[in-house]
Amino acid sequence: MMFRAIGLAISDLADARILSIMLQALAVAVLIFAALAVLVFWLLTGADPCSLAGVDSCPLDAGSSSLGAITITLLAAWFVFPAVAIAVMTTFTDRIAQAVEERHYPDAAREAHPIGLLHGAALGARSASRLILFNLVALPFYLLLLVTGIGPFILFVIVNGLAFGRDVAELAAARHGDRSARRAWIKSTRGEQGLIGTFASALFLVPFVNLVAPVIGAAAAIHLFNRSFWATNSIKDSPVPQPAPPAVTGEH
Questions:
Q1: Separation CA 221–CA 103 (nearest Å)
Q2: Dmax of the chain from CA atoms?
Q3: What is the DSSP letter of 59?
């Protein structure tokens, strides 16, 4: 089911609505990192790192400040991009879910309850905080694994996969059912969530492909939810076609 969900999520990128939402979310993320670069440049301009270290004086000029701002922003983009992505994506959660469900699960789309801006912002803040916390806890291990070359990348995929999978699952489930039913579904699909999150986190490491990773992860979680939640909560209202029950025959 998980592989089917990922396959459907990738095919959804051809949907004009999904593509439009993805470009808007990407624009917001770019603006955030651009603002970070400007802030870092302002902080570095005229700064004197040598005096801070207690040796002579070497104030940074505009060129050095620009280089430092670009370097720090690129490092920050690699380290916190998943957190920024999940925070930005919550702003578009209703629209992404609506587009996916109207295309594949029209019954679910009609019964959905919009998350709303405030609830979405709260979910996004919690998810982003969780991703940042996980990575801060893992930071010493990232540094220790630098000697292995590939170790930090593997740990990045694992750490962010676990957190990102849970986050997109919560976003996918937020529009349907009651709280207890959502919690039960999240608990019963932790393995699938982790695999979806791991797949999306691996995409974060691939240049340019990482730009579509958040949307693929979110759409895959929406597919996973709609293809499993309704089967156990309300078969008669399930948007996924259910197999016909076997015919009952008399004994001979």
A1: 15
A2: 100
A3: -
Query: For the segment 166-201, what is each residue's pLDDT rounded down to a tens digit?
Result: 888 988 898 887 888 888 999 999 999 999 999 999
Smallest CA-to-CA distance from 210 within 225, 223, 222, 200 is with: 200
CA angle 4, 8, 14 (to 5 degrees): 160
In whole angstroms, give the CA distance from residue 130 to residue 141: 18
| Among the listed residues 245, 248, 212, 226, the one whose alpha carbon sits nearest the alpha carbon of residue 89 | 212
CB burial string 202-241: b at 16+ within 10 A, e below: bbbeeeeebbbbbbbbbbbbbbbbbbbbbeebeeeebbbe
Q: How far apart are CA 141 and CA 189, in angstroms?
A: 28
Q: What is the pLDDT at residue 128?
A: 82
- Tell me what pLDDT residue 57 has: 66
DSSP assignment of 44-79: HTT--HHHHTTSS-----HHHHHHHHHHHHHHHHHH
